[in-house]
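Annotated sample (chain length 44).
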Amino acid sequence: MEFLKMLLFNSVEFVALCAVMVAGVMVGKKLRDKKDAKVQDEEK
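Output written by the structure step:
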């Protein structure tokens, strides 16, 4: 029973960390695209 508890806990923790990583990548890409657009506008 203890094994199943730890497996479930580790699975939930893994899913949560993956969600944080995906959110970080998405936010980073959005900020980078915004910065690139601003630089491109300044060059024109």
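Annotation: Residues 2 and 24 are 33 Å apart (CA to CA).
Annotation: The chain has a mean pLDDT of 96.
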